[in-house]
Amino acid sequence: MILPIVAYGHPVLRKVCEDIDKDYPELEKLIADMWETMYHTNGVGIAAPQINKPVRIFVIDTVQIVEGFDEEDKKEYPDEKPVKKVFINAHTVATGGKDWAYNEGCLSIPKVREDVVRPGEVTLRYLDENFVEQEETFSGITGRVIMHEYDHIEGKLFIDYLAPLKKRLLKKKLEDISKGKVRVDYRMMLPK
């Protein structure tokens, strides 16, 4: 089922989410709904708080990014492989590598894109959809997408990384998003 995306300003986007266990109600359906919602909105990742669930789950699929690489991207990220994964109860083990900027956007903050500086790699410990514990290091575009989605389960948004002046310049756009004054091709859940 395609679910509405929680809009900027909704309090669930600022909650540090809770770990779940394998008895979480309708977990398989929740994950299927997250995939369906992400693909419907043309996203490359979605976290549970974005569909109004304050739990530590996110999904990513970087196929459309990697397949859409131009020649310059292929040179810059020659080892980039598309990744499609479910992350449950993810926690950061380490970050490292050279910090780099990349232009990010977010389904919960539509029509806003800004350069965000993040570490070059992230190591996560998480459970896959079968509740098997994993620990992996991700870098490149995939690492970037994972760090963005991970921030959601920590109650952070990509705009939190922006300089104060840049945030002030975005204030009106953010207010419009929270009031539903931005047109998107998917349903939004506005703050109450």
TrEMBL record:
<comment type="function">
    <text>Removes the formyl group from the N-terminal Met of newly synthesized proteins. Requires at least a dipeptide for an efficient rate of reaction. N-terminal L-methionine is a prerequisite for activity but the enzyme has broad specificity at other positions.</text>
</comment>
<feature type="binding site">
    <location>
        <position position="148"/>
    </location>
    <ligand>
        <name>Fe cation</name>
    </ligand>
</feature>
<feature type="binding site">
    <location>
        <position position="152"/>
    </location>
    <ligand>
        <name>Fe cation</name>
    </ligand>
</feature>
<dbReference type="GO" id="GO:0046872">
    <property type="term" value="F:metal ion binding"/>
</dbReference>
<feature type="active site">
    <location>
        <position position="149"/>
    </location>
</feature>
<keyword id="KW-0378">Hydrolase</keyword>
<keyword id="KW-0479">Metal-binding</keyword>
<keyword id="KW-0408">Iron</keyword>
<comment type="similarity">
    <text>Belongs to the polypeptide deformylase family.</text>
</comment>
<keyword id="KW-0648">Protein biosynthesis</keyword>
<dbReference type="GO" id="GO:0006412">
    <property type="term" value="P:translation"/>
</dbReference>
<feature type="binding site">
    <location>
        <position position="106"/>
    </location>
    <ligand>
        <name>Fe cation</name>
    </ligand>
</feature>
<dbReference type="InterPro" id="IPR023635">
    <property type="entry name" value="Peptide_deformylase"/>
</dbReference>
<dbReference type="GO" id="GO:0042586">
    <property type="term" value="F:peptide deformylase activity"/>
</dbReference>
<dbReference type="InterPro" id="IPR036821">
    <property type="entry name" value="Peptide_deformylase_sf"/>
</dbReference>
<protein>
    <recommendedName>
        <fullName>Peptide deformylase</fullName>
        <ecNumber>3.5.1.88</ecNumber>
    </recommendedName>
</protein>
<dbReference type="Pfam" id="PF01327">
    <property type="entry name" value="Pep_deformylase"/>
</dbReference>
